[in-house]
Amino acid sequence: MKSTLSAKCDLLKGSANIPVMLAAVVVLALTLSATRSHAGSATWRLSPTSSDWNTGANWVPHTVPDGPADTATFIVSDVTDISLSARTILDGIVYEAGASAFTINVSSPTTLTFAGAGITNNSGTVQNFATNVENMDMSGVISFTNSATAGSMTVFTNNASPQQFEDGGVTMFSDNASAGSALFINNGAPPDVSLSGGRTEFHGNSTAANGVFINNPNAFAGGFMQFFDSTNAGNGTFTCFGGMENAAGGSTVYFNHASSAANGTFLIYGPTAAGGGCGLGRV
Q1: To which H or E segment does residue 8 belong?
Q2: pTM (2 d.p.)
Q3: For a surface tag, which of 11, 90, 125, 165 has the fewest beta carbons within 10 Å of its beta carbon?
């Protein structure tokens, strides 16, 4: 058995490791803090340090909303043109009463996914979203899954790709998601670019609900929409424009598989010059 004096000596010898142990604790605490700063519900700051959604310093608290249970809240801010720099998933976005008018840009290769409530707009102001293409072979994507809704007084602009033979930006609905009463603008491709219009897609059992959809032609391929699986057009309003130049294709709305036009209203406008007409039909 060790004497009391011997035990004290052993304790003193072990004390040499205390700084190392403390350093390990500090590193662990910093690691946990960094983890927390990259996930959690938060409110966009009045005066953010940048326009980057995925920077923790732009939120209160300093946590980036990026998780299926996270809510991003927007009130008044000096920075209203926001861009994603990483793939992001949310339960939803809430615009509080009196909030500024924001535009959230989703450019390739980033995606913004709503996996829960979707968008709640209490601001009294139209809120904008845009999908863009900046890198070849990749489109910016906004996705609504589960039962998420695009809400009301919201506008989604899906822009064409500047690349030859590449698709444009896309807003996509799946599962039981709904377009709510939002406005969707699918822009056509510029000259000498084909198969590049912005688009809106419905998959699973999702619905266009009371959404308004405008499919623009531009000079070549038009913006377009596709319904798959058991989706339906709900009570949506769909406007399609014909091509603007010789041999240019117009915008299109196609129903695939068991999808249904339901009670949708379809407004078809012919081409200008010798451009192609609108495409509306079942595949």
Answers
A1: helix 4-14
A2: 0.82
A3: 11
